Amino acid sequence: MGSHGAATAEGQAAVLAHFGITEAQMGCPIRSSVEVVHLGATPEGIQTFMDRNAFSSDGVMLLGRVKWHTDFAGKIESGLLKMMAIGLGKFAGAQHYHTYAYKLGLEHTIRAIASTVLESGKILGGLAILEDAHHQTAKLEAVPVEKMVEREEELLTLVKSWMGRIPCDLDILIVDEIGKNISGAGMDTKVVNRSVQGAYNPWPDTPRIERIFARDLSELTYGNGVGLGLADVVTDRLVNRVDWTPTRINSLTASTPTAIRIPVRFATDTECLEAIAPTVGKFDMRELEIGWIRNTMELSLMALSENLRPQIERNPLVEIVSEAREIEFDGSGNLVGFAEAVALA
Prior knowledge:
Layout: H1 9-18, H2 23-26, E1 36-41, E2 47-51, H3 52-56, E3 60-65, H4 80-87, H5 90-104, H6 106-119, E4 123-131, E5 137-144, H7 148-160, E6 170-175, H8 189-192, E7 209-214, E8 233-235, H9 236-240, H10 244-253, E9 264-266, H11 269-276, E10 290-293, E11 303-304, H12 309-314, H13 338-344
């Protein structure tokens, strides 16, 4: 788990418990530890580590999603090889590897570490989980250790072709919630086209998003506010819910301090929108092209401003499911939540 769960054994067990993974539920022991064994160094000098419990076992079967990574693009991103590095390396490995990755690149670092871990002889194989655009399990594949590298490259190409996307450029994207349960970066950088280092629109094949308004933290992020810094404007309620201990540990371990900077903030949604709207170069607010999503993981339903209708109608992958309606605010000046707005449409 790297630095998740505030980088403690108890915290990481608690993360599992939040997902219903407990000894009672699973019918087997759960051994959470941040102790590691040193496996040696890569040719680049990267000291390599493995979780002590895993190293003490007869063999290790990896289990993980193969998917795009929020920080970089490559033939290998998130998956079984990354699990060998950041997963099995625990907090000690995560800190060390990200420091090297800052200069060498994450893909190069992951491949180098995975090669050293494979040389230990402890890895037996892995189960790759692939999810569709709705984040439902679409494919499970057992991957033998001798074909792990080449097969993961093929599986990543496949899963990228299923990726859910925002269908058009936007002046403002409203995001109801961010959180570690939604994306490792709080919100998926390849959906909102924002890098964890703060760069605007770095991904060339992704719609341009000029401004991001993040409204709140997900309940299931348990106070981890990573991703806060990707937004341009946020509410006070989001900032006030951040637990800064796991947030700082997680962000600094990943060498992404920009991802937890506090953007301009206001008490209400109305103030946030009124403040950010004039910053996109349009004098007539009726020309603003606005999108609204619950989070970057749930993209099957989204609200788009009516001036985008011509683009939407030309897109064979998008269906208009309701007539246009006014955006509603409650008595406190906050948007009627996305789920409620969809229900009312």
